[in-house]
Amino acid sequence: MRALIGPDLIRKLERKNVEIRDTKMTGFTLRCRASGTHVYRLTLGRGDTRTIGRVGKMTPEAARLAAEALIASVSRDALKHMADDPTLKTRDAKAKARGTVKGAKRRRITWKFFVDEHYEPWVTAHRKHGDDIVARLRVRFAEFNGTLLEAFSAFAIERWRTQRLKTPVGDRTIKASTVNRDLSSLRGALSRAVDWGFLSRHPMAGVKAAKEDRIGRLRYLSTEEAARLSAALEARDTARREARDRANDWRLERRYELLPANGTYVDHLTPMIAMALHTGLRFGELTALRWSDLNLVAGLATVRGEEAKSEKTRHVPLNTAIVDVLRTWRACSTSTVLVFPGADDETEIVDIKTAWKPLLKAAQITAFRFHDLRHTFASRLVMAGVDLNTVRELLGHADIKMTLRYAHLAPEHKAAAVAKLVVAS
Questions:
Q1: Is 311 helix (H, G, I), strand (E, B) or coil?
Q2: Among residues 134, 136, 132, which one has the least CA distance to residue 121?
């Protein structure tokens, strides 16, 4: 899970096995154990994770400073190694003799140094998921840490891709789509290196993406599954309301302070799932949604560009069913900022696995992710006869190619085209 590692988090730690990744510093983590022994750690690369200190003996602020010092120390060691490399010194001497000192400086920069000192500050400032991009580059391409940028070649990258596609994960191998996503991140970083003058040419100019199934996994709720999911949600809310009532009866007998009574929705789960089914919003778009983004009178939700995957603001219409749900939820919720808050009014939800898995079990639904609610929304629209371009606009797809994966759900168009042959004959 991801969260800001700070005093508030430390106070709420539970005795269970979990790894918490810091949202502020890449590689900085908190490893928690059921034994109660929690430690701060820092991952510098593949297979290189170091323990910084124990919770209780070191504050989060001190651990973060120690992590920053460790990163700086490793960077200095890498630079010293490059400075002492006789091969590089010889190359520099030859470059100076030819009058190409600039080229010599380019060759002295390794992949790791470029990512740490140049690319990370830029990408984290200019890209929404910059931290994730840097983390992916460090983990996936750690074997190139000591490689000079000028030594990158199409052959080396193709070889990496071939090996990666053969990497076993359980009883299968890495998906082509996953490898392509990694290569896309690498391509973006190397493009910056070319733009900034660290490379004279782009080493991936001749590297093509691995062939993949563009339609991929498309799971959506059947009518029966949707009914079971709705019933499971209603049963969950009812059970929690009754439990709260019993608890307050017990507290009343003992003259204890009563707990707040639960409303129609006991927490964010039911309205959040309803919102996903009626709007097709992504999980991150839902968790970032603010009450100020909603106009329940006009029936409109605004997905702000900084929270959208396409980084473009879009407006999604709200039907009467979801408007009723949101009005009811607003009366139940104590949040005045976020529609679906986390620990407090301004903290976004990280994940809902704790509630999601038991819910699916109660509804007897298997092999279903939260993101599949978005697929369900799109699939229902297509099967109802809505044209694909309108579906694309509602989903916020930048390219119609992504929306075409739902085209097979509207077979009447193909059937009508083939039927013309009968008329023609």
A1: coil
A2: 134
Partnered with residue 315 across adjacent β-strands are: 302
- Distance in angstroms (rounded) separating the CA atoms of residues 190 and 17: 38
Could you tell me the two tokens for 223?
């009518």
Helix locations, 12-119, DSSP H:
60-84, 86-98, 101-107, 111-114
Integer Cα distance of 144 and 72 in angstroms: 19
Question: Which tokens hold the place of 152?
Answer: 């990158």
**Which residue stretches of 166-266 are H helix?**
176-195, 223-253
pLDDT tens, residue by residue, 193-248: 999 888 989 999 888 887 776 666 688 999 999 999 999 999 999 999 999 999 99
Positions in the chain whose pLDDT score sits under 70: 46-47, 72-108, 213-217, 410-417, 423-425
Distance between CA 208 and CA 184 in Å, rounded?
10
* Identity of residue 16: K
Quote the tokens at residue 6: 């700070």
- The pTM score is 0.64
Backbone φ and ψ for 317, nearest 5 degrees, come out as -70, 145
Q: How far apart are CA 420 and CA 425, in angstroms?
A: 9
Residue 43 to residue 19: CA distance in whole angstroms: 12
Closest to 280 measured CA to CA, from 259, 308, 252 = 308
Structure tokens at 40: 């701060």
Q: Which of 29, 370, 242 lies closest to 9, judged by CA?
A: 29
φ/ψ of 108, rounded to 5, equals: -75, -10
